[in-house]
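Inputs:
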Amino acid sequence: MKSHLDTNVIPPSRQREAPRAGLTWIGQSIKRVEDPRILTGNGGYIDDFKVPGMAHAAMVSSPHAHARIVSIDTSRAKALPGVIGVYTGEDLASVVDPCPSFASPPIPQTAIAVGKVRHVGEVVAAVVAEDRYIAEDAAELVEVEWEVLPANVDIEASAAATGDALLHPDDRESNVALDESFNFGPVEEDFAAADHIIKRRLRWHRSSAQAIETCGVVAQFDPYKGGYTIHCNSNFYNFIPFVIGGSLRVSPGEMRIVPKLAGGSFGSKVFSHKIIILTAGLARLAGVPVKYIEDRLEHFTNSDSHGSDRLYDAELAVDKDGTFKSLRFTVLDDYGAYLQFGVGTHGNAMAQVTGPYTIGSFGMRVKAVLTNKCQQGPYRGFGSEVTNWLMERMVDAAANELGQDPLALREQNMIKPDAFPYMIPTGNIYDSGNFQKVLAEAKQMFDLDGWREKAKKMRAEGRCVGVGVATCMERSVYGPTEWWSLNNKETPGFTLTSTPESISVHFDPSGKLFVTLHSPMVGNSPETVVTQILAERLTVAPEDIVFNYSDSQSGFNGVGPQGSRFTAMIAGACVSASIKLEERLKRFGAHMLQRRPEDVELRNGMVAVKGLKDQEKSFGEIALTSSFFRLSFPDGEEFDSGLETTAVYDHPLSTDPDEDRKHLGIFYPIVGHICHIVAVEVDPGTGKVEMLDYAAVHDNGTIVNPRTLAGQVWGGTANGIGTTLSEQFHYNSDGQFTNPNFAEFAMPTANEMPRNFKLGHVETPSPFTEYGIKGGGEGGRLGAPSALTSAIEDALSDHGVKITSLPVTPPVLRGLIRDAEQMAAG
Amino acid sequence: MNKKAISLTVNGRVREALVPPRMLLSDFIRHELELPGTHVGCEHGVCGSCNVVVDGKAVRSCLMFAVQANGTEITTVEGYDTAEGLHPIQQAFWEEHGLQCGFCTPGMLAAAKELLAANPDPGDDEIREAISGNLCRCTGYEFIINAIRSAAKAMREAEIQKTLQPA
Ligand code: FES
Ligand code: FES
């Protein structure tokens, strides 16, 4: 039978370094090479940076969710001593064009609102002054006259809104910015033939990453050259000039974007183009360098990095023996006031939407709804955290309705270890895996059988104790088709297919290996992983490797840490660079040893004659000779350029979407697997959840540094715990964001973390990446919400509580318990 | 605005300055004294990344005016390490992977310093409690707790070594 996936061919592997035992540096928990400077206060974050003559910006932010700007009076603000300038949206528009948009057709957004505001916190005017205190005083003096419009807060209501409630009446006739349907495989037939259809309405609420450092920029404009120098904490600095050049009316090469160490991102600093455009425009208008650092309130209300906010109507088709047949859903996503990345977060979820299970077909209708809130951006999981939760909720629901054990049902439907590479209905593949092994490891680590007994006993004592298991996917190493593959075919937008990573390396005459990275550090460990991989491949001592970061003019292709891609991608670039550098080391070294290049090899930082013990030249000697004694080598350009190279790595494995979107191609194929098991106790009187025990086993392929990977898993799990138990942005019916601060948006502290956290790893190497490395930056948040939700539902099963919405804060849970009790009482 | 003269000791050095009364201590330390290791995450007293040690106590420098620090003795993260190298708490954070982006770290170090000065052998729950006023979005805290536990041990052992040394 012909399948919709027949045209989706898996290209051969381009792996050069096979995964293997006995590696020297890969797999070691070396201490991070980044740390000493950071630990002593010399990290070099954006707000640590200043330039002579620098002024400071403060913003006038909208107090309304939706309003026309009738007039703005800046005269009092301008008159304040120390103020250099006060600028409205119209002023900014004289030097800057609207922000870029990946949505297609785009939804226009300007860095300062023009004509109307669409969410609380949107900037309506900016002050540039000698210091931030004066700038903020002046911002208070700007007077705006408003005509308030109806605010759209609820997803479903906004989707139906008309008239004055439309957010972008000039560009869209509805607040539904995109409405597309897809069927991957025989969805209708599978549903028609299924014995059971499990239905659930599931709600995932809005929160965001809230890195402890906000976004910031220092921008300078050179009126003679007509270009900008921009220091910022964007994740994406070697790519961003191409994205924002149009907005800033300069060619990408006329911008020098310099990365600063970012104090956390988790997606929130991917791009961050609006703040760059805003600050750059202000520097041009004011004629002085300008620093703008978001304060926490601005980061909450205007940083364009809110997370997923979705309402699903989902159905799972199941046979009576428990076999999953098909999954389909309609999803409304509250994107906020703009649509910067289109529905890329749903494109992302297509990578693993059917989870670790054999499900033959999948259908989806996605509606992107605009509301009067700050727009969405990436947050650890980029949409897949929600579909992971949905999948696991549906499996638990199926187990419940069929009267089956939820774990047995999972095991029954899990993809078997011999089925890889495995193609899911959307066309993405899972490169490799052994989900059963991960599960077995987690069960053992957690002592699942023991805990089930224990929980039973505790329940018999009247305590609400439950255990939840989640088996989820962690896709890694994204291909950029996810950004546009769900766009309407007639308006595909910018159909980018490359997200490369590169590295530049050279030996200096002292024998140190100087490495230039073309992506920034955001809290990940780029220098450490590169140290380990280069030390491995070139036999260089780690302490001889020195790091630098390029800027966008000296740099080369780099996309940066996002989508759990960096380690696997930079490993590819390191291997390419090492191959080239090895060739040169051997060429120069062999000449010095009076041998042929094929007779020498790399050994402990030396070029050494094969099979002979003390016939060798250190890399230092070779570097010194090739740098200062060129005449010692033969004529010919192969001896000219010394020991340096730049290498680019594009992607280990990706293909384009099918033209008719019968499938989406292979775009996120390097998959990890996660099993989280947690035991919780709920206090039914208060709705408070306590985690009694927690085990997480992750398979991220070959591990470069177990400790830094563990740090990622831990941190992601903490984010997932917050998402599940406490973090939610609240809006009232006027569209006021009522908890935009750290006191009321409750992120976990050390006290909210589980006491007995056990972490395990299984290593199923990828056959496609160098050394078999897979990404591991998002897994904690991709697994924790599912396991915790399941455990809480289990703990409250005697009360008949069903959890269909996150987060379950104590008041929410208390409400669910009360409702269930009232239902039971009739 | 009338500036006020203040004099205080920061990392062992006497610093004198004229500051506007409303200038936050965090801004004074970061931008006037040019000690950027003290970080500002929220400016409303919740995250703890601006913690510095004022007269032996970990204090939120975003909730204090520079004028209020007149006459005090302050240690910031720049003042922890010595000629011999990193402070044992910094060293332990390095060894135990107690930081990722490092933005919360100076505040965590200050909290740890205060704790270990008062309690050289804290239990895990005491460590947890001591850092529960500091937000970290990267680490999930576990490795920070490990770091403080191991710093405590190293510092205790160093004390014993000192007493064993001949005078
Ligand atoms: S910056 Fe002072 S507590 Fe957050
Ligand atoms: S290490 Fe990044 S916030 Fe703690």
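Residues B 40-43, 45-50, 60, 62 surround FE2/S2 (inorganic) cluster (ligand 1) (CB under 6 Å). Flag for discussion at group meeting.
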